Amino acid sequence: MRTAAPDEHGTSTGAGTAPGVWVVWGTAVVVYLLGVTQRTSLGASGLDAAARFGIDPGTLALFVFLQISVYAAGQIPAGMLVDRFGSRRMLLVGGLLLGAGQALLALATVLPLALTARVLVGAGDAVAFSSALVLVARWFPARRVPVVTQVTTILGQLGQILSTLPLLLLLHAAGWTTAFGVAAAASVLSAVAAAVLVRNGPIGWRAPAPVPPREMLRQVAAVWRRPGTRLGFFGHLGTQFSMMTFSLLWGVPYLVSGQGLDPLVAGTLMTLLVVASVVVGPLVGMVTGRHPMRRSWILLGVIGLTAATWTAVLLVPAPAPTWLLVVLVVVLAVGGPASVVGFDIARTTNPGGNLAVAQGMVNIAGYSASVLVLTVMGGVLTAMGGFTEDAFRVAWLVQYPVWAFALVGIVVTRRKARRVDAARGVVPRPLREVVAGMRRA
């Protein structure tokens, strides 16, 4: 295995071709992929969960509210733990928490136990994601990190396919307990694999020296004060929440009850969402790597496109044309890769010793917005009589104020970030020169 020295961001610059890198990265991706499976499992089985526990849409939203609230609140603590103890240990912890949560959900027959299960899933998910991203930054050359980060998140999102088709089919064929028991066992096995196969860094990588708790808190404050962190935060917030709200909970009920689609057709559209992310993600990663000074334009463009597409869908009486729903799903899929641009901005504007905290801070944004939107939507649906076309049409309007908030945040923090860059002598090339260079390429 070739020795690699960290660059100025604490990123390995020569480990990309080391023999062990793919085993380490692949194992981390599996833990993360199964974390996404557990995270989105209620998105596909939401109607089954409502029937099993005898709950209304607002209470069903509480399941995901707790899970994602724990996930979002755990981002900074998880980042601090990963920076302190390393990805190997924390992948083990994350996988075991995910397995425990799904095992409890498999056996639960009363609401309090089911809610506790989702809390465990949220905590394990937070740790697994942060650990995987840090491994990418430490094992791959800096120039490859944007693309590998996109591929990591894309492969992780394949876990949604496992929850929307195989898990759903197993649920209907073998029952609730068997389906969620199998999901729990998969995460436990991935945790054991991580403990055996993952290493925190390549040969020659030096772990940051442990710091006292008070110093860690000071570093967290310093990370937030950096304009690049806040720019990544608002970018992640605006691009991710619509896709997450759709895939985590309300997508399948909306397509089935609000648009009148067959459940298998709805599941196919949810699978298309993941496939589209797989196609778009590497392209976004390549553009991000080649034009780092234009990353905010990716964020602004995706937010505008998503809002425009939802507007078109909501203006058309249900059932909307199938082609329009396909367009909606594809556009929502772009939001996932676009949100990863926020992580890249945080990575390049923070030192390596704060990498997990910075990326965790960015990750809070989209999931906090998702929690807010899906919870308010649950309240609107309940107030308007449940899963009806009119109720969904009003409920989806909750998204628009969040997009407006994100747009203002991006514009304001981008100006501050560019002033910091200018003080360091980094000035973006004029857009016409960038476009001309792309044409020549």
UniProtKB/TrEMBL annotation:
It comes from Pseudonocardia xishanensis. This is MFS transporter. The chain crosses the membrane at residues 20-38, 58-78, 90-113, 119-140, 179-198, 233-252, 264-285, 297-316, 322-343, 364-388, 394-412. Keywords: Membrane, Transmembrane, Transmembrane helix, Transport. It comes from the Bacteria. Its main location: membrane. It is a multi-pass membrane protein. Residues 23-418 form the Major facilitator superfamily (MFS) profile domain.
